[in-house]
Amino acid sequence: MERYDIRARRIPDSTIRRLPAYLRALTRTGNERITSERLGQLAGYTSEQVRKDLAYFGAFGTRGVGYDAASLADEVRRILQLDQNVRAIVVGAGRLGTALVRHTDESASDVAIAAVVDIDPAVIGRTVGHLTVESLDRLEALVVERNIGMGIIAVPPAGAQSVLDRLVNVGVRAVLSFVPRSLAVTNPDVFVQHIDLTLEMQALAYFVGSTARTQS
Questions:
Q1: From CA 160, how far away is CA 185, in angstroms rounded?
Q2: Strands, E, within the chain: which ranges?
């Protein structure tokens, strides 16, 4: 089957980021057919945005009738390559790393966490969810042995760049970083997503202030 490359097809990153929201809405609805308006309502976007995003990948619905929810969910899952048994490794078994592993265990996720590693001897050997924390020294071996394509970095800033470099060198193509700093990646085929929780909270503070100003 055809695979979609957002670089080759020049599909906006923002479109790719909205697809999981559409997939969640589609899998939660019990309707056999769903309109773009209803899908947008469930996912938090406008019907125009839904149609525009899906149009990048083909024609899936019928004007005035809508989409077959189950079929569209399968297509979106295939576009995201979630039908390919995507596996991830968590680097860092602290509070954040262990929380991610446990959350994935408890939720219906299409991305499976297949390994978790740490550098702390006091943590190595502990059980987190369905996994045993292994040594960071085993990172490359685990990526190869368990066919891992995604890395999740949850380590202190000082060691984050080294971890990213090792993940890239062993062939990981996508990385989610919770490190509160930007990391450098020179390989254009590797996509790194940075999530800085502190910056997110600071941005949200604006809306708290905005509410207070409205009420004053």
A1: 12
A2: 33-34, 67-68, 87-91, 112-118, 127-128, 131-132, 134-135, 150-153, 174-177, 191-194
Q: What angle do CA 74, 77, 80 make, to 5 degrees?
A: 150
The one-character DSSP state at 135 is: E
Mean pLDDT by 10 residues, the chain (216 residues): 50 91 89 89 94 89 81 92 90 95 79 96 95 98 97 96 97 95 91 90 82 53
| Residue after which a domain boundary falls, among 36, 59, 82 | 82
Specify the number of domains making up the chain: 2
CA–CA separation, 4 and 75 (whole Å): 11
Tally of residues, the chain: 216
* 69 to 116, 197, 207: CA distances (angstroms): 35, 34, 35
Q: Which of 21, 15, 168, 39 is nearest to 91 (CA)?
A: 168
Q: Is 8 contained in some domain?
A: no
CA proximity to 101, closest of 118, 120, 76: 118
Write the CATH number for 68: 1.10.10.10
Q: What is the pLDDT of residue 3?
A: 45
Q: Quick one: pLDDT at residue 124?
A: 98
- 89: its two tokens: 């490794």
Tell me which residue range forms the domain holding 191.
Answer: 85-199
Examine the domain organization and report whether 68 and 96 are in the same domain.
no
